[in-house]
Amino acid sequence: MSRPDDRPVDLRRAIASHALHAARHVLTAWYATPFHRSLSRREAAFRRYFGDVGASFRSAPRTWQVAEIRPVTDGSAGDRRITEITLTGPLGAAPPVPGDMVALLWRNPDSAVARALPALAPTATTPVAYWTTPRPCRPARRSSTSAETFLREAADLGEGVSSSRWTTATTPRLAPRLYTLSEVAREGDHSRLRIMVSFHADWPERAAAHLLGLRVGEEVRGWVLPHPRRVPGLVVPQSREPIAPEAAGPGLAVVTGSGIAGVLAALRAGVADDLWLVWGTRHPVAPWLLQELETYRAAGLIGRLDVVVSAGERPRRVTDVLDDATGELARRLTRGDWIYVSGHTATLPAVRERVQAVLGPTTKARIEAMRYIESG
Ligand SMILES: Cc1cc2nc3c(=O)[nH]c(=O)nc-3n(C[C@H](O)[C@H](O)[C@H](O)COP(=O)(O)OP(=O)(O)OC[C@H]3O[C@@H](n4cnc5c(N)ncnc54)[C@H](O)[C@@H]3O)c2cc1C
Question: Which of 212, 215, 255, 256 lies closest to 75, judged by CA?
Answer without folding.
Answer: 212
